[in-house]
Amino acid sequence: SETPAPAIQGPVFVISMKVLVGLSGGVDSSVAALLLKQRGFDVVGATMTLWRAGKYAGGDRDACFGAGEAEDVAAAEAFCRRFAIPYRAFDCSAEYEAEIVAHFRAEYLAGRTPNPCVRCNATMKFGLLPRLAEQAGIAFDRFATGHYARNDFANGRHRLLRAVDEAKDQSYFLYRLSQEQIARHLFPVGDMTKAEVRAFAREYGLAAADKPDSQDFYSGDTSELIGAPDRPGDIVDESGRVLGRHTGFWKYTIGQRKGIGIAAPEPLYVVALDACRNQVVVGPVGRAVRRALVAESCNWVSIAPPEAEIPVAVKVRSAGQPVAGAFVRPLGDGRFAARFEAGIHGVAPGQSAVFYDGDVLLGGGIIGSAQ
Predict the structure, then answer these.
(1) CA neighbor of 31 nearest in space, from 76, 68, 86
(2) Is the model's pTM score more than 0.70?
(3) Which of 161, 245, 329, 365 has the highest CB neighbour count under 10 A?
(4) Burial of 289 (0-12, 13-18, 19+ CB in 10 A)
């Protein structure tokens, strides 16, 4: 039998506002929903189901996309039942295959390294899920998730800000959100640390209190999603000298050192992927460092698109902190050039370059090239 829901402690405010909360079955979204309920919001829970049994094998890693989804949905449903929160699950598997997996596949086969989580947030979690809820007749005023980020309104813009917990900040994954999406969104855990979130979950006896975080996009081998047969080719240095062989250039990423399979006097890193020549290009660590990039399809969030060069901090991977001392300037057609004299290791086309001013996420774009 289920443990009865404890009485919610602390001040409870009566707010005539309904909030749709995207639930994953994990601790962050569960705490987000419970915090909102504690504050007096009328909460409704919703989950996207993405996995289509039999199409992919998956694996046992904690991930957003994988065969363990049924357990996550059951956990979200049990949580909502315990706290008297209405709940719906929406089958989004076909849209996910078309919008996320197909794009992931195409980008890798073009020699680029995509970030599916960035695309998923803008088009699926913050786009498709609330739209399906509305179409199902669920009326709500705001949408909320368990993302570690914050938002506010200043200088005529709905701004996106980094979370209080810098180690867990997820604003990088959200830079493609529109003004409309940010205006409607609530980030209940953005002002909390992960430790505080877990402590809150334990206080209310949530089953997800100590559940591990999802660290990966896919629970199995991503080569399965790409679905391409082996295509043997050369591993070369920047002069074109053949150093070894590979079975598919898409199995490598720029900046990679381990698993290249070449013995050399000094460590070698992947510095380029040449899809046309079917080559993986490697070089010493210094050749994996870039000091400039061009970002395409830029989305400016907290400010209007800059008309002249501005100073920024830049982040080109989800992990780590933004690198200060960078500058970005417009090139036209939604493209912006960024330069950072200190240099950044492993700048990969297809990944996202996101620009910050302190805690404020200014905007970002897809890396088209780097040098």
Answers:
(1) 76
(2) yes
(3) 365
(4) middle
